[in-house]
From TrEMBL:
Enzyme Commission (EC) number: 2.7.11.1
Record location of the Glycyl lysine isopeptide (Lys-Gly) (interchain with G-Cter in SUMO2) cross-link: K147
Name this protein carries in UniProt: Aurora kinase
Pfam families xref list: Pkinase
Residues where ATP binds: K32, K51, K55, E100, Y101, A102, E149, N150, D163
Keywords of this entry: ATP-binding, Kinase, Nucleotide-binding, Serine/threonine-protein kinase, Transferase
One annotated GO molecular function: histone H3S10 kinase activity
Domain Protein kinase: 22-273
GO cellular component: nucleus
Residues forming the catalytic site: D145
Substrates-to-products reaction catalysed: L-threonyl-[protein] + ATP = O-phospho-L-threonyl-[protein] + ADP + H(+); L-seryl-[protein] + ATP = O-phospho-L-seryl-[protein] + ADP + H(+)
Organism for this UniProt entry: Arabis alpina (Alpine rock-cress)
An annotated GO BP: post-translational protein modification
Leading EC class: transferase
Length: 289
């Protein structure tokens, strides 16, 4: 029993987790619905992140269904670039998610600190994301809310997709307006049916943002961002100096017709990815926080 990790406990359906199983450490951050703490499982000494969400908040924002869906999807996924949800427990007031600890924090922090990323770092993250999304799509999961704030980094600078709050498990076309403005695909802006190709669009947006520091269709207000997305009003500023191969990949992802966007497999084979991405998905520069 002593050497059991939360992961192995989590597979034991009879294990009722509670706060007494953990030593709580420093706060790691605060989200919209709760706080996240560094913690150590008492018996195994296994380090985790505990996300504490107050039931009052869940009821106030009516996110019961969203949270349950997030928990069910995230526990079922096993991929090196997807943050593990080992298990959860609750008491009268709180729900606590037992998450894999991402030492490097948010990728957003690295992007804001450095302004923009090197082509090696950007290609490594796009490759990691593509591999994780290929895995998700294979399990009929569309993420729909991939943005730098939902991407965490581990101790080696390996990217981890977190936060499955907006994801759906479906093999049918969906028609629900959701996601964050700048990352929305045109078919979502126009409230049309959408499928896995929305995640491929987002990869194009992220690739641009990694290399230039801002998403491509940023505007003064929501209406103008919508207009720019629908028109595919895409331009590449002269600075920073970005390679033609990177621009080629972005242009093949930010395509209005979802069926004409580069497939995930083709992204992984793209010359810019092959030339720049670290094959192990490790990006040490991101540790420089
Ligand atoms: P969230 O409620 O998921 O938005 O998380 C709030 C903040 O806590 C984020 O901004 C992260 O910086 C931090 N955080 C969340 N989950 C983890 C984790 N698993 N490991 C490390 N930091 C985390």
């Amino acid at each position: 029993m002593e050497s059991k990790s939360p992961e192995s406990y989590a597979r034991d359906p009879n294990k009722p987790w509670s706060m007494v199983d953990f030593e709580i450490g420093r706060p790691l951050g605060k989200g919209k619905f709760g706080r996240v703490y560094l913690a150590r499982e008492v018996k195994s000494k296994f380090i985790v992140a505990l996300k504490v969400i107050f039931k009052e908040q869940i009821e106030k924002y009516k996110i019961q269904h969203q949270l349950r869906r997030e928990m069910e999807i995230q526990t079922s996924l096993r991929h090196p670039n997807i943050l593990r949800l080992y298990g959860w427990f609750d008491d009268d007031e709180r729900i606590v998610l037992i998450l894999e600890y991402a030492y490097g924090g948010e990728l957003y922090g690295v992007l804001r600190k450095n302004g923009y990323l090197t082509e090696q770092a950007a290609a490594t993250y796009i490759s990691s994301l593509s591999q994780a999304l290929a895995y998700c799509h294979g399990k009929c999961v569309i993420h729909r809310d991939i943005k730098p704030e939902n991407l965490l980094l581990d101790h080696e600078g390996r990217l981890k997709i977190a936060d499955f709050g907006w994801s759906v498990q479906s093999s049918n076309k969906r028609k629900t307006m959701c996601g964050t403005l700048d990352y929305l695909a045109p078919e979502m802006v126009e409230n049309k049916d959408h499928d896995y190709a929305v995640d491929n669009w987002t990869l194009g947006i992220l690739c641009y943002e990694f290399l230039y520091g801002n998403p491509p269709f940023e505007a003064e207000n929501q209406k103008d961002t919508f207009k720019r997305i629908v028109k595919i009003d895409l331009s590449f500023p002269p600075t920073p100096n970005v390679s033609e191969e990177a621009k080629n990949l972005i242009s093949q992802l930010l395509v209005k017709d979802p069926s004409k966007r580069l497939s995930i497999q083709k992204i992984l084979e793209h010359p810019w990815i092959v030339k720049n991405a670290d094959p192990k998905g490790i990006c040490p520069q991101s540790q420089d926080k």
